[in-house]
């Protein structure tokens, strides 16, 4: 099949080719004729995204041909989603740390307490600090007076990390008055912060 | 002969010209026009004005006076012209400046923009080339406007993505500039036609430094990356790539991300270099004002290329 997209500017050659590919009933080589380099590059990207083999060649002063080996299969088209997952929208890359327990890992309690202490200390030494630290369930103890990581959390807060503790949890454990760093939050905020995260760390 | 009071001129590839009037006042002068990037006339006017005003903000200054520049096709309805100008007036007003006149010529293709005059204290002028090793780079708007306006030309955008795009392009860099003024900023520019990679390259050119951009930290407008991987990329992105490819080294960056780095921006954000210790606080202060700022990279002593994207 030949798609003549000469005289068309970006993004129309891709749009026409896409329509042609989607109308195919069986696998076929499609030859797309275009008159500019941009269209060649864009068609090669279009083909790569659908895992089709493709090659472009220059035929004349302002004449290029892109041959695309379009595969029609019953399987859903497998697209390379690594590119999409690498980053997405406005909220790309926000690092969020969730502390859902005052201990790190399951096993010996003293070890768990020490590990958590070391974890929060190590956080303060990272080049990229988290945007938020969210504390809930027994994690709520960590932001209250008497917590072994209180100083490190205060340091993180002073460096711009937003620290929030679940209000329901503070109430449940009866430690609301002891909150010593950050602010109190609710479940909507806890959901929102995690939704907006690029990466969530849950030790 | 060079005028000693011309503080920033032709030779520095900066955002605007700066001329010292006396020790307390320097004048910033810039001009920017372009063809429509969206269908709606009022929105186009707003975007063109936000884009023209941005050059003054990028120098650290305050815009005061603007002149309209219109290139109008003969058959363009009066109502469309009025809407474009109304968009421009509203943005200039929002910036705290006034439109004092302008100039119109006939042209076969519509173009609109403004010449903007601003003021600044000479000692506070922010050029685009003062980066120092150890600085962090902060970007104050997401990228992807070139790719998305290309997709929008043929109605490929969802309503939601389109609104994000338009809101971002029409947003003034005023608040970002104001907040930036509270910090010890070493260099600033705004990201426009040369794309993020191109403007970053200009920032480090001749400084003996390398800018390292972490592509995963760069805020991207919704759907821009998906369109990039489908091959909906404007010619300008390929032009930018071929101009500056020799100065840019990429390390394991997916092609669509790379294309975004070269995507020409309309009314993009400020690109700010400041000491690393202040970067997180600056982005937080901006975030509190609803600005989508992010730390996107750092400045290191020169290594391999002017810009490394990883």
Description:
The complex is a heterodimer of chains A (203) and B (310). Chain A is built from 7 helices and 9 strands, in the order βαβαββαβαβαβαβαβ. Chain A is α/β, with parallel strands linked by helices. Chain A has 2 domains: 2-78, TusA-like domain (Translation Initiation Factor IF3), CATH 3.30.110.40; 95-201, Hypothetical Protein Ychn, Chain: A (3-Layer(aba) Sandwich). In chain A, helix 1 runs parallel beside helix 2 (37-49) and helix 4 runs parallel beside helix 5. The longest helix of chain A is centred in the middle third of the chain and has 16 residues, at 109-124. Chain A is rod-shaped. Chain B folds into 2 domains: 6-124, 60s Ribosomal Protein L30, Chain: A, CATH 3.30.1330.10; 135-309, Phosphoribosyl-aminoimidazole Synthetase, Chain A, domain 2. Chain B has 10 helices and 13 strands. In chain B, strand 1 and strand 2 form a beta hairpin. The longest helix of chain B has 18 residues, at 41-58. Chains A and B meet through helix 1, helix 2 and helix 3 of A and helix 3, helix 7, helix 9 and helix 10 of B.
For the largest interface, the chains and their residue counts are: A-B, 37 and 40 residues
Overall CATH class of the largest domain in chain A: Alpha Beta
Structural class of chain B: alpha+beta
* Count of strand segments of chain B: 13
Estimate the strand proportion of chain B: 25-35%
Radius of gyration of chain B: 19 Å
CATH homologous superfamily grouping of the largest domain in chain B: PurM-like C-terminal domain
Name given to the CATH architecture of the largest domain in chain A: 3-Layer(aba) Sandwich
């Amino acid at each position: 099949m030949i798609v003549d997209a000469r005289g068309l500017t970006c993004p129309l050659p891709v749009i026409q080719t896409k329509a042609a590919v989607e109308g195919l009933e069986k696998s076929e080589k499609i030859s797309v004729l275009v008159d500019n380099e941009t269209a060649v590059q864009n068609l090669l990207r279009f083909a790569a995204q659908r895992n089709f083999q493709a090659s472009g060649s220059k035929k004349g002063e302002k004449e290029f041909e892109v041959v695309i080996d379009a595969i029609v299969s019953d399987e859903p088209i497998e697209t390379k989603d690594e590119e999409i997952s690498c980053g997405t929208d406005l909220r790309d890359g926000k690092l969020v740390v969730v502390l859902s327990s005052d201990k790190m890992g399951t096993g010996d309690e003293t070890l768990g307490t020490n590990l958590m202490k070391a974890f929060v200390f190590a956080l303060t030494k990272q080049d990229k600090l988290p945007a938020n630290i969210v504390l809930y369930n027994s994690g709520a103890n960590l932001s209250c007076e008497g917590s072994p990581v209180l100083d490190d959390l205060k340091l993180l807060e002073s460096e711009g990390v937003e620290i929030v503790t679940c209000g329901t949890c503070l109430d449940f454990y009866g430690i609301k008055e002891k909150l010593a760093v950050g602010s109190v939050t609710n479940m909507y905020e806890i959901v929102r912060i995690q939704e907006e995260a690029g990466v969530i760390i849950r030790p | 002969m060079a005028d000693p009071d011309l503080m920033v001129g032709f030779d520095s590839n900066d955002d605007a010209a700066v001329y010292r009037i006396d020790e307390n006042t320097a004048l910033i002068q810039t001009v920017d026009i372009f063809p429509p990037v969206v269908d709606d006339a009022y929105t186009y006017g707003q975007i063109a004005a936000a884009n023209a005003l941005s050059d003054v903000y990028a120098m650290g200054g305050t815009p005061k006076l603007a002149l309209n520049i219109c290139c109008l096709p003969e058959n363009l309805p009066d109502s469309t012209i009025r809407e474009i100008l109304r968009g421009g007036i509203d943005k200039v007003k929002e910036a705290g400046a006034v439109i004092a006149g302008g100039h119109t010529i006939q042209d076969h293709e519509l173009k609109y923009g403004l010449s903007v005059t601003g003021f600044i204290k000479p000692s506070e002028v922010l050029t685009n080339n003062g980066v120092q090793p150890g600085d962090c780079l902060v970007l104050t708007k997401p990228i992807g406007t070139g790719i998305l306006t290309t997709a929008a030309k043929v109605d490929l955008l969802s309503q939601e993505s389109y609104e994000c795009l338009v809101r971002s392009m029409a947003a003034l860099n005023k608040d970002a500039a104001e907040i930036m003024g509270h910090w010890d900023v070493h260099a600033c520019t705004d990201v426009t036609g040369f794309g993020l990679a191109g403007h970053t390259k200009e920032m480090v050119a001749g400084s003996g430094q390398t800018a390292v951009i972490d592509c995963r930290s760069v805020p991207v407008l919704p759907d821009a990356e998906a369109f990039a991987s489908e091959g909906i990329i404007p010619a300008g992105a390929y032009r930018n790539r071929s101009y500056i490819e020799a100065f840019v080294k990429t390390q394991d960056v997916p092609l669509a991300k790379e294309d975004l780095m070269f995507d020409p921006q309309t009314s993009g954000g400020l690109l700010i270099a400041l000491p690393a210790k202040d970067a997180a606080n600056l982005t937080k202060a901006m975030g509190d004002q609803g600005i989508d700022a992010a730390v996107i990279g750092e400045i290191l002593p020169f290594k391999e290329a002017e810009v490394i994207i990883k």
